[in-house]
Write a structure and sequence with these properties.
Strand content: 5-15%
InterPro entries: SET_dom, SET_dom_sf, SET_SmydA-8, Znf_MYND
Organism: Anopheles atroparvus
Mean pLDDT: 91
Bound molecules: S-adenosylmethionine
Radius of gyration: 26 Å
Largest sheet: 4 strands, mixed
Distance between the termini: 51 Å
Protein name: MYND-type domain-containing protein
Low-confidence stretches: 344-348, 519-531
Helix content: 40-55%
Strand order of the largest sheet: 3-4-14-11
Pfam families: SET, zf-MYND
GO molecular function, one term: S-adenosylmethionine-dependent methyltransferase activity
Number of helices: 17
Shape: globular
Length: 531
Amino acid sequence: MTSLCGVCRAPATQRCSGCQQVAYCGRDHQRQDWKAQHRHQCRRFKVVRSDRLGRHLVATRSIRQGEIVYRDTPYAVGPKIANVPVCLGCNRNLVPLLAKAALQAQRFYECSRCGWPLCGVECEDVEQHRAECGVLAGTGYRPNIRPHPADPERRESAYCVIVPLRVLLLERTAPERYAEVQGFESHLEQRLASPLYGVLRSNLVPFVRTVLGLRQYSEDTLLQVSAILDTNCYELRQPERHVKVRALYPLGAMLSHDCRPNTKHYFDDRLGMVLVATVDIPEGAVISVSYTQPLLGTLQRRLALRQAKCFDCACDRCTDPTELGTHVGGFRCPSCRQLHHHQSKGTGSASWVVPCDPASYRSPWRCQNRKCSYQERPEEYATRCERLQAELLALDRTEPAVYEAFLVRHEPTLHGWNAYVLQAKYALTQLLAGRREQAPSDTANERRMVELCRDLLVVAERLEPGYGHFRTKLLLELAKALDGLRAGGVVLSEQEQQECRSAWDELERIAKTDPTVKAGRIAGDSRPLPS
Ligand SMILES: C[S@@+](CC[C@H](N)C(=O)[O-])C[C@H]1O[C@@H](n2cnc3c(N)ncnc32)[C@H](O)[C@@H]1O
């Protein structure tokens, strides 16, 4: 069918290259429409609905790796249901901002009108705080939020009212946004059965209706708003600015999850969410993000998604017993291992135990070797994971040697890419990076780093390919370690020099659309240093 010009309805000869969604008879009408409206509507995606994903985003044209898919402005930002003390003006954690002497004063700066803690007088009139301040000030209620130097991680539950209140106040300040938020997914029915919603029913509801006097909002509406926030908010982290809060974004609320996503996101200085394609996304493909951690096995990821976002993931990784060949959830078959031990040769040692049905929380686990009958019940597998998790958590987090010992201890029984092994290996890279600061020319340290990064990069490429954050961090550590070896007098092979050059080249490309990978310089090296 011939396309018609979006302005005059004459036969069209060209399409908008940005979205491929509208056509024009020529450049004049394209320019005219751009100025009049299209610049606000031109998008690389559209929102569609399916039975499995609900509403989600689909690419309306091919999107290149590294391209920014969209920038999204938040509708509401603020503390999580229970949060460490945070400034209601600028969202920064209050504790690290205070000098020791001030902490001993036992109080934070309090807003002169509503009494809630802020950084200082300069945050009293920040737009985010203005509307709520009037409502909070009128109540006479003052939260008892104080510094606890001995327990800086202590969370205050009084914060559970702030973001819901900010959403309710949109009804006055931005009614079209308020109406849009009411249409977001909530999973309220499922959430009402949880203990958290029991607590919200007895804390949040009377606070808003009785203390704040906002009686026009029924219990159902208030719990619905909470459930919308729990389903759609993103954790907004900017460690260098001491910001760790939650935020609701209109496009973010339409974005579906995949355990092998094709985008990543970061937050800009104005707390906007920027979505970047980590791989080439073909026209018609679902645009996905990951709501969870890549270094968890399928059972743990799916449980986390069910608990936080109320759905059962059925992506390619979740439905593959080997998790795309990585065996992140798997372990070595004890029976085949014994056989191997007795015969001291043969293929026994290479048999892995995998779930019979990865998409079931109650699946038994079975040896992949058809000749072996080894099985493990779901309870036994869960206990195995809990034990490993507890062991990992108990390690001294400052000491690389204890992580190395963990790896040696579990090498005979776990896959080299088992979730707990991966977590230990990744922790080791962080510790070795810290050591580099103290001992810059420790070549044994750098050699080990290179080995770990090469290994983890293979996993990262399978689970979060392309420009994903996990892979980017590893590329950076690999490049720095190879540079470190050279600086320490080691002669790199031709292959290693090429490996180092291509890592830096790729990091430069990633940095073009991801400012969290900042350009800098290593002393004595002319290459840009993402940090
Ligand atoms: C941020 S919202 C995304 C928009 C939502 N689909 C809608 O229609 O409003 C998150 C919710 O989308 C659904 N969802 C997202 N990714 C999914 C997936 N991979 N499989 C099934 N449901 C998914 C779940 O209901 C989840 O709680």
